[in-house]
Amino acid sequence: MPVWSYIIVALAAYCLGSIPTGFLVARAKGVDIRTVGSGNMGATNVFRTLGKTAGVFVLIVDGLKGYAACAWLGDWLLAALNVHPAAAGHYRIVAGIAAVLGHNYTCWLRFKGGKGIATSAGAFFALAPLAAGIALGTWLVFLLASRYVSVASIAAAVAMPVAVWLTGDDLILKLATTALGLLAIFKHKSNIQRLLRGTERRFGEKSAEAAK
Predict the structure, then answer these.
(1) What are the boundaries of each domain within the chain?
(2) Helix/strand/coil percentages in the chain, nearest 5
(3) Measured on CA atoms in the order 128, 131, 137, 140, is the torsion positive or negative?
(4) Contact 96, 127 (CB under 8 A)
(5) pLDDT grade for 85, boundaries at 50, 70 and 90
(6) Which of 81, 129, 195, 212 sits in a 20 to 30 Å window from 172, CA-based?
(7) pTM
(8) Cα–Cα distance between 55 and 128 in angstroms, integer?
(9) Measured between alpha carbons, how far is 105 from 17 in angstroms, rounded to an integer?
(10) How many of the other CB atoms lie within 10 Å of CB of 176?
(11) Helix, strand, or coil here: 32?
């Protein structure tokens, strides 16, 4: 298929993924999420600093960005571009990768964003639902066992590509999942450093700003 059709899908999915949900929700409450808590724009920091309702909303919307990019936006663009259904799978993979990159490196905030866990989960529930379910189960087990969201997210970032390699047969999807898993772990480097220092907050612990 023409390269330009992949570029169009990637750009559209990137723009969707780049919507900085956590930043916008916090700004609506008069808070710059980048300056409180961990400084991250993801659902965990929003949950700690702004409360459960805001955190759950950001989590759901960030997940929907990934799912919508693959399942809805991708299919709509494929129909508009008159792409043969046989090639749809790889277009959806491109859309998923682009949406995660948009979330992690949003052009609206100087290419700084979240860690991509929720957006990746949404994308893979569209691309590989069985593997995504396994990764979600892994996330829950590690969260309950450690009470660290970061530990659970890193475990899920490992489990997702492993599950895809074991249950899937598309090499491109396997390689893409592996790359996104490594990116998710890389984005947690500050969390890993805090875990090693013993300063990482457990789930349910409020940030210093929220406790005031």
Answers:
(1) 3-211
(2) 75, 0, 25
(3) negative
(4) yes
(5) low
(6) 81
(7) 0.91
(8) 26
(9) 9
(10) 22
(11) coil
Distance CA(114)–CA(38), nearest Å, equals: 11
Q: Long-range pairs for 1-8 at CB < 8 Å and ≥24 separation?
A: 1/83, 1/84, 1/87, 5/81, 5/83, 5/91, 6/91, 6/94, 8/77, 8/81
Query: Amino acid identity, residue 136?
Result: L
Two tokens, residue 171: 């090499």
CA distances from 139 to 36, 50, 59, 148 (A): 25, 23, 14, 10
pLDDT of residue 211: 42
b/e burial code for range 66-96 (CB count within 10 A of at least 16 → b)? bbbbbbebbbebbeeeebeeeeeebbbbbbb
3-class DSSP assignment, residue 33? helix
Structure tokens at 182: 């490594």
Task: Scan for tokens 């890389």, then name that residue.
Answer: 186
Both structure tokens of 17: 């993924």
What is the 3 state secondary structure string of 64-85?
HHHHHHHHHHHHHHHHHCCCCH
Q: Which pLDDT tens digit goes with each residue over 91-100?
A: 899 999 999 9
What are φ and ψ of residue 157, in 5° steps? -65, -25
Rounded to whole angstroms, how far apart are CA atoms 46 and 43?
A: 5
The beta-strand segments (E) located in the chain are none
